[in-house]
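User: Last request for today: this protein with glutathione, please.
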Amino acid sequence: MQTERDLQAWLWATPNSNRVSILLDELGLDYRVHGVNIRRGEQKSPEVVSRNPYGKIPIVTWSGEDGDRTLFESGAILLDFARRHDRLLPKSGKALDEAMSWLMVGLTGLGPTMGQAHHWTDLADEQPEVARAHSVGLVRRVFGVMDTRLAQVPYLADAYSIADIAAFPWIARSDWATIDLAEYPNLARWHGDVAARPAVQSGMAKPEGAVLQG
Ligand SMILES: N[C@@H](CCC(=O)N[C@@H](CS)C(=O)NCC(=O)O)C(=O)O
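Assistant: Here's the final one, the structure of the complex with glutathione:
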């Protein structure tokens, strides 16, 4: 049951945004999407900065039993919704330990290293070889540890969870780090399994018509 009234999300066609749209679609929630074109600098607008002083997306707001709520940082949003809805996160014990640990690998290892690799292999005006190789090497280390893990279990925390949702939108853009996913066969198998989920397909298509370019 949806307890959030007037649920709204500020998103663009970016990996951290798609974590949130996949989450909300997995939970079957109704929400209104506001497109924030980060290549046009719309994340610096008063509309965004008043809800996230960092001037970044994703952001979600809603009215709940405890009043008006605002959350930014994709990891905070994943954890809050999984816990309140009692879905996509084990309750306790070893299963919770594993889900939390692999969630953090996605949030603090995969996302930031992919962002740097995208910068040094594509976005930067100058792309010194030392920076390119260093940033891609850090991504390869994360891909390698995930590939080894996924040789043993179907999903990062065994059962499908927010750890997979945090990782998927970045793995789906492995080309941003000039990496062919086929080099990591277990990760590629997992990517195919997660990509087949209807909520992942609908979440990855939000905001409708958004394109990340420039
Ligand atoms: N740690 C934050 C990172 C948010 C982030 O960097 N968002 C990007 C889009 S994926 C953004 O807003 N970039 C524009 C900017 O930094 O000005 C999260 O996971 O939500």
